[in-house]
């Protein structure tokens, strides 16, 4: 069975229109602006690491669900080496090393 790369034209119309109406980057920007506004006068430090921690785990979980737990397929989807993915999954406690 030959696999083809997912392109915008191969995404179902409903999903494509949702992605077009609110791109991921816009969702992230709004979330960060809301977080900063809520922090008010409190010192904000380590924001980069916080964002990566908050985004990486749900990203991995969603991709693993989509790939039905197939680490090779998930790594390919993420553009990561399979061993790197395993290391990151273990760091998040998603799998045991």
From TrEMBL:
InterPro entries reported in the protein's UniProt record: Fis_DNA-bd, Homeodomain-like_sf, HTH_Fis, Trans_regulatory_Fis
GO terms under biological process: regulation of DNA-templated transcription
SUPFAM superfamilies named in the record: Homeodomain-like (SSF46689)
DNA binding HTH domain ranges (all copies): 52-91
Protein origin, superkingdom: Bacteria
Alphabetized GO MF terms: sequence-specific DNA binding
Keywords assigned by UniProt, alphabetized: DNA-binding
Keyword Transcription regulation: no
Record bears the keyword DNA-binding: yes
PANTHER family referenced in this protein's UniProt entry, alphabetically: DNA-BINDING PROTEIN FIS
Protein family (similarity comment): Belongs to the transcriptional regulatory Fis family.
Protein name: Putative Fis-like DNA-binding protein
